[in-house]
Design goal:
The structure is a single chain. The chain is mainly beta and 225 residues long. It folds into 2 domains: 126 residues, Immunoglobulin-like (Sandwich); 85 residues, Sandwich (Immunoglobulin-like). The chain has 2 helices and 17 strands. A 5-stranded antiparallel β-sheet has the order 2-3-9-5-6. β5 and β6 form a beta hairpin.
C-alpha cells in the first residue's frame, strides 16, 4: 500500500486494509465512521472518497497495469451491518503514476467499502500474468566479429517477462532462421540460452518468439576469416 492515498469527505474516521480471498485474489477494504445524521437529527450525513492507487500498488494488489483498470475490471461493494450492496457507483481516472478511484456519495454510520476485481478483471490478470511482453523481455548476444568459414557460434541469452515485468520461465523462447544452426534454448535461473552457429560469413537475421508472441528480431554479423 506504499504511496496509496485515501481522501475522505464527511467521515470522522477511517482506515484501509488489504486482504486475500480464498481464490488468491486480493481486495481493499475502506472502513469509515461518522454520525448517521447531521446536527439537525434528520438530514442524512453524506460524504465521498477519492483513492489514489500508485502503479506499484495496482501491480501488487491486482496484477494489472494502470491502463487495465476501469469499471469493468474493478467492482465496489458496500457493507453496513449485515447488509451488502453491490454495484456501488464509482469512477476511475488515469493520472500520472497510477489511477484515482472516486466514490461520489457515501452515507454513514460505519460502512465498509470493498474494492475488488470482477470476473473480467481476474481473466485479464491471468492473461497478463502468462503473456510474454516484447517491451519488457531482454535479449543479449555474447560475442562480436565472430569469424565464419569454419563453424562460428554466438550465444543468445533471453529473459522472458510479462507485461508487468515479472519473469516467465514457463515459456521457452524460439529462435528462427532457416540458414543457421540454432540449438534448443536451455534455462538456467531466469535465463534461456541458445547457441547460434554459421558456416559462412554475412549478416543473419533471427526472429525470436515465446508462446507465439514476437520478442523481436536481432541481427548477427559473421565475419570472414
Amino acid at each position: 500500500m506504499r504511496g496509496a492515498y485515501f481522501a475522505m469527505t464527511g467521515a470522522m474516521g477511517g482506515w484501509v486494509t488489504s486482504a486475500t480471498d480464498t481464490d488468491g485474489s486480493k481486495h481493499l477494504v475502506a472502513s469509515l465512521g461518522a454520525p448517521h445524521f447531521l446536527a439537525d437529527g434528520t438530514t442524512l450525513n453524506t460524504g465521498s472518497m477519492v483513492a489514489f492507487l500508485p502503479a506499484p500498488v495496482i501491480s501488487s494488489m491486482f496484477g494489472l497495469t494502470s491502463g487495465d483498470l476501469d469499471t469493468t475490471t474493478l467492482d465496489i461493494t458496500r457493507t453496513s451491518g449485515t447488509t451488502t450492496t453491490t454495484d456501488v457507483p464509482f469512477t476511475i481516472a488515469s493520472v500520472p503514476g497510477g489511477v484515482t478511484l472516486t466514490v461520489p456519495t457515501i452515507t454513514f454510520s460505519s460502512p465498509k467499502y470493498t474494492i475488488k476485481m470482477t470476473a473480467a478483471g481476474l481473466k485479464k490478470q491471468q492473461l497478463i500474468a502468462k503473456t510474454p511482453s516484447r517491451s519488457k523481455s531482454t535479449i543479449r548476444v555474447i560475442g562480436s566479429k565472430v569469424k565464419a568459414n569454419g563453424t562460428s557460434t554466438y550465444s543468445v541469452v533471453v529473459i522472458v517477462r510479462n507485461k508487468l515485468g515479472k519473469v516467465l520461465t514457463i515459456y521457452r523462447p524460439i529462435l528462427t532462421n532457416s540458414t543457421l544452426h540454432i540449438t534448443r534454448a536451455t534455462r538456467s535461473g531466469n535465463q534461456w540460452t541458445s547457441k547460434v552457429s554459421a558456416m559462412h560469413a554475412g549478416l543473419k537475421l533471427i526472429k525470436i518468439t515465446a508462446n507465439g508472441v514476437s520478442l523481436g528480431t536481432i541481427s548477427l554479423n559473421f565475419f570472414k576469416k
